[in-house]
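Tokens as discussed.
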């Protein structure tokens, strides 16, 4: 049997692309040097897959920032404000991705959103009415030829036109339906180009097909492919779907002239049933996504082998069945080889991208001894159960999920106690993680400095950070999070039940990565985690200091979860651990506590019908469990990123926090209309500027933004803050931006 990999991580084993890009942005290396780093990564990726014996390997899965943005640039779907910049093509691309501010230019970045149900973020293309769709780029062809020169005839991966149009924002009067014909024609030209350069197979990625589709969506999909597949130009076309099953269009998909169809048997809970009930056309190849592209666990060979057997019965011909990854391996780390500290008895249960290549090849021709070894592995998992934790979860009662008194009563009590001005200003928690801050942590980790030195350094940073915030005139201060590498890994490291990696980085956006910790066993908190830092910060000022925690849903969603107990059970265990921390902070005099749920929306099922039953019905109560034990005067904040939560506003409100801050500056302010319509009770801090870009917003701009926000919110409920933590920003731009933020808040306060 042959094997196929949807796509491969692109950051480099040691995050080479991240470091090179950062140097390039600082002007420390040239574009040619950056290109060379990229070429090396692509070469290593292709060769690693080829050497592992994978048959179908993707090219064009590389990107400097994002593949959706690449596709937009490929077809000239670029807003005029970037197209007309007087800079190099790569600089235009980066301007759209991250904004550009220098002496001549001042443009914001395009919006960024979560890629389906992953923690990867794509850039949202914007379609203006005068956009002229045209195949102007050569990236897919170039990268195909580059791989070919290495002796590998790759399949060319490309974001499919249907998914592309569904993810694009139409800012003028035109709609996807109006431009689908023109876009399809240009994809046809791309196919022709690829074919004339020797390509034989293209993989069109259409993950949008796993969402709930309405009649208009299905009509659009059929129209696009009815047309495009008439212009294959001799290429074979693989329709690749992932992150779920395609129950709404299975019949339509198999009826179209695709040569191969890639289905996800991992997250696609109905995929097997769809294939069994409806059959699979004899003239097509089924690429069965059986090795999960998202988890880090070893594949269960016995399960997989039994599905393969069923599928062979359906396709009737082993030539017509290929086994593949369930989605791109972009969502898993590179390799276990880089993990030197993970104990062997744990390590053998994991598979990262490289190891998944080996699994695919092993599964394609499964030997008895491999199967036996794999079965033994699943039988002998090192112990992961903690009976005290299990008992605590089992004893939870309904009242544990309800905070008293009700919101309105608390709001009045808190306003009185805190005495904050109208439009209180605050930040989301972290301050710039400068080189000295990172060095302090890594020196401590390596044992180069003592606990005392480590703590004293952080205390000095906290003192400075508090002084800075006082000087800036912020109202609710933070300690700055200098002790944290990452908002989830930090808590993972301090909770039992976790295991850690050294280099298991996964791409989050652009070239930024996260290193999710792994939940191995039952989770609990053995001792206070953040209390000493918060207490120290509070002792440096008379102003209120917010305690800063990560919520259970985000901890779970940004960890690699276990697969031997349910997600619901895991999240309740974590909630109880964080609840202990909340109560300790309160007992130590911290009167405002922020519990970040940056990733709350992330695991929302892609199909609406599953939202509550499969997720929100346990995620929201888990959050409530964390804070239901605090006193009425303790103010609970939460924070969410990329908050496309317009459609789950009642659920967000029922988290029952006192204040929510969220990202709003990159997207329009539509969310505020929705809050109003839903009578949102929680106080709100819609981020007034984008912290993902180094650009400094002017006072005027911020006043303008706040004026717009005020039209849609109640003054008494409005907070003023950036849209996320400042840890990725430089100190200089941070100080300037916050100064302007405070000035803007004062202006609107004074004009009241
Ligand atoms: N408190 C965190 C910080 O400020 C929140 C980060 C996030 O939402 N991603 O960094
Ligand atoms: Zn955030």
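Sequence:
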């Amino acid at each position: 049997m042959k094997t196929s990999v949807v796509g491969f991580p692109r950051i480099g084993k040691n995050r080479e692309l991240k470091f090179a890009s950062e140097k390039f942005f600082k002007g420390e290396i040239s574009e040619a040097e950056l290109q060379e780093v990229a070429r090396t990564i692509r070469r290593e990726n292709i060769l690693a897959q080829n050497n592992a014996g994978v048959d179908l390997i993707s090219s064009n899965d590389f990107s400097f920032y994002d593949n959706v943005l690449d596709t937009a640039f490929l077809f000239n779907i670029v807003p005029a404000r970037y197209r007309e910049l007087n800079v190099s093509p790569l600089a235009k691309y980066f301007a759209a991705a991250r904004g550009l501010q220098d002496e001549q230019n001042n443009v914001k970045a395009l919006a960024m959103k979560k890629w389906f149900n992953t923690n990867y973020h794509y850039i949202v293309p914007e379609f203006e009415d005068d956009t002229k769709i045209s195949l102007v780029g050569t990236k897919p062809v170039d990268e195909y030829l580059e791989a070919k020169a290495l002796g590998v005839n790759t399949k060319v991966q490309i974001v499919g036109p249907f998914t592309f149009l569904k993810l694009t924002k139409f800012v003028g009067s035109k709609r996807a339906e109006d431009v689908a014909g023109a876009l399809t024609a240009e994809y046809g030209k791309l196919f022709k180009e690829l074919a004339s350069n020797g390509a034989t197979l293209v993989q069109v990625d259409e993950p949008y097909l796993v969402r709930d589709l309405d009649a208009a969506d299905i009509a659009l999909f059929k129209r696009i492919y009815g047309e495009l597949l008439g212009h294959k130009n001799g290429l074979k076309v693989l329709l690749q779907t992932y992150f779920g099953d395609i129950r709404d269009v299975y019949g339509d998909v198999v009826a179209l002239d695709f040569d191969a169809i890639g289905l996800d048997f991992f997250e696609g809970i109905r995929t097997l049933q769809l294939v069994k009930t409806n059959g699979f056309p004899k003239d097509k190849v089924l690429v069965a996504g059986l090795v999960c592209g998202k988890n880090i666990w070893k594949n269960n060979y016995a399960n997989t082998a039994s599905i393969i057997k069923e599928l062979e019965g359906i396709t009737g011909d082993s030539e017509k069945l290929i086994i593949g990854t369930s989605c791109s391996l972009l969502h898993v780390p590179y390799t276990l080889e880089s993990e030197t500290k993970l104990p062997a008895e744990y390590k053998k249960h994991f598979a990262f991208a490289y190891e998944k290549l080996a699994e695919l090849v092993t599964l394609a021709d499964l030997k008895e001894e491999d199967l036996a070894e794999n079965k033994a592995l699943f039988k002998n998992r090192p112990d992961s159960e903690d009976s005290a934790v299990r008992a605590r979860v089992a004893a939870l009662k309904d009242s544990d999920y309800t905070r008293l008194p009700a919101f309105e009563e608390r709001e009045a009590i808190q306003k009185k106690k805190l005495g904050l001005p109208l439009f209180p200003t605050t930040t989301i928690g972290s301050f710039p993680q400068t080189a000295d801050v990172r060095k302090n942590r890594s020196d401590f980790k390596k044992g180069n400095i003592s606990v005392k030195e480590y703590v004293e350094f952080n205390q000095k940073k906290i003192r400075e950070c508090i002084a800075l915030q006082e000087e800036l005139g912020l109202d609710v201060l933070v300690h700055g999070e200098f002790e944290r590498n990452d908002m989830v890994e930090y808590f993972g490291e301090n909770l039992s039940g976790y295991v850690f990696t050294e280099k298991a980085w996964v791409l989050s956006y652009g070239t930024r990565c996260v290193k999710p910790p792994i939940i191995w066993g039952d989770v609990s908190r053995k001792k206070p985690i953040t209390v000493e830092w918060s207490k120290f910060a509070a002792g440096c000022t008379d102003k209120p200091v917010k305690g800063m925690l990560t919520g259970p849903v985000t901890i779970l969603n940004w960890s690699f979860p276990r697969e031997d107990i349910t997600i619901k059970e895991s999240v309740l265990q974590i909630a109880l651990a964080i609840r202990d921390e909340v109560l300790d902070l309160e007992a130590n005099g911290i009167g405002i506590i922020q519990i970040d749920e940056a990733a709350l929306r992330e695991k929302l099922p892609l199909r609406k019908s599953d939202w509550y039953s499969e997720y929100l019905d346990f995620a929201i109560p888990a959050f409530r469990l964390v804070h239901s034990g605090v006193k009425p005067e303790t103010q609970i904040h939460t924070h969410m990123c990329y908050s496309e939560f317009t459609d789950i506003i009642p659920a967000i409100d029922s988290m029952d926090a006192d204040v929510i801050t969220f990202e709003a500056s990159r997207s329009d302010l539509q969310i505020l209309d929705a809050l109003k319509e839903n009578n949102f009770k929680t106080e709100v801090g819609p981020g007034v500027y984008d912290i993902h870009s180094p650009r400094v917003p002017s006072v005027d701009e911020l006043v303008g933004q706040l004026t717009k926000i005020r039209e849609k919110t109640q003054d008494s409920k409005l907070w003023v803050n950036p849209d996320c933590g400042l840890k990725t920003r430089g100190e200089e731009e941070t100080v300037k931006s916050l100064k302007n933020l405070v000035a803007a808040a004062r202006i609107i306060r004074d004009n009241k």
